[in-house]
């Protein structure tokens, strides 16, 4: 909206003799992306108008006209009838300007006792708060998918790895529940961030508060905040709530990328630990045999984008003197993208985990290979023969070397062969060389024994329902 006499902006152009350069409009306008805040912006304005009436700052008639007019604007936007204008910079001025076209004079009174600085801080908090809620419920669904896998294969054996080398046998259920623990911490990070950000900046006005007798507790309550923010300068300056959301998102995306990598490895022809469903894989246009784990690969990559947004916002905020600076308009686009990316990633991972099938036999065969029960043998030497662990480690190492030399696994060695390393070894040792016994013996709290896994599955099922 421009003033026909000067070509200056009628929302703020009183002291301007000319309008902005076209390139200035292009770099300055945020409406191209902050229109995503329309619902929050209108909710904030409705709460503000109702409060202005309740405190006698606006007449009940004006407030009523504003409240109704804002609903009209809302429905125009939602039905695609609204024209967003770059010359009106952002969502706040677009909404206010259209409101004034619809209701006339009262529309011009809406901006009493507020500023776009507290407006945008409020709108953005409301938006990020919704995203925390969305992340929390998506994470719950993903955790349920992992728990269902764990339930199915609580006692299925598979190799546990360190350095991607076979380490000790573990259970499938235990491996699935490892991710449930990670995702539970992710969920609590979003919950913590939400709790902390749930204070209402509205009423901080430009930076110093206002001389009008506003009721900040009333607007805070109307918008579902726990309370108003306590310092007006802080209210319009900080974007730590957005950084917390992005940080929690980055950590969560890092977790997703680790399971994604495991899926890429596990679904390969060399491993065949899992079969991914056709719904989450693609073929090759030239190699007919191919079934590529594209969704897993993309999930492995998505952290790059989310962490990029996190670093970008830290970089924008670093060194900004209080209070608001236009730099802060750069807080939105990448956070929007990061949030979209996270929600899509969580949905895709939930689908993949729900649909994947573990190859129980392949897992069991792999669990028994690679001398995976060598630690069990060493522990047996300690328990049954009273060897110091360091000596038992050495004896076992020599038997691993022997088996490797013979091209067999530890349980394939004869008793006579075992006794070459230590004469005290008896027939009983074979019990601990089997992978089933190995996992069953890992009963320390948090260990991989099937009974413990079943108890953890039950705990999560109760927690998540
Ligand atoms: N579009 C602006 C933003 O996103 C809104 C706040 C503008 N405030 C100002 N004083 N120019 O940050």
Question: Care to describe what's here?
Answer:
With 465 residues, this protein is mainly α. The protein has helices at residues 22-28, 31-34, 38-54, 60-78, 91-103, 105-109, 116-152, 172-197, 216-222, 232-237, 240-266, 294-317, 333-355, 360-368, 374-385, 389-406, 415-421, 429-433, 435-441, 450-464; strands spanning 157-162, 165-171, 199-200, 227-228, 274-275, 357-358. The model has no long low-confidence stretch (mean pLDDT 95). It binds arginine (ARG). The site of arginine (ARG) has 10 residues, from helix 7.
Rg (C-alpha, Å): 31 Å
| Tally of DSSP helical segments | 20
Largest sheet: 2 strands, antiparallel
Look at the helices and sheets and give the structural class: mainly alpha
Name the ligand types.
Answer: arginine
Spatially, the strands of the biggest sheet line up as 1-2
> SSE order, as H and E?
HHHHHHHEEHEHEHHEHHEHHHHHHH
Distance N terminus to C terminus? 53 Å
* Strand element count: 6
| Mean of all residue-level pLDDT scores | 95
Question: Which percent bin holds the helix content?
Answer: 55-70%
Question: Unreliable segments (pLDDT under 50, ≥5 consecutive)?
Answer: none
Task: Briefly say what this structure is.
The protein is mainly alpha-helical and 465 residues long.
How would you summarize the topology of this molecule?
Blueprint: H1 22-28, H2 31-34, H3 38-54, H4 60-78, H5 91-103, H6 105-109, H7 116-152, E1 157-162, E2 165-171, H8 172-197, E3 199-200, H9 216-222, E4 227-228, H10 232-237, H11 240-266, E5 274-275, H12 294-317, H13 333-355, E6 357-358, H14 360-368, H15 374-385, H16 389-406, H17 415-421, H18 429-433, H19 435-441, H20 450-464
Parallel strand pairs: 3-4
Antiparallel strand pairs: 1-2, 5-6
Helix pairs in contact: 3-4, 3-7, 3-9, 4-5, 7-8, 7-13, 7-20, 8-11, 11-12, 11-13, 12-13, 15-16
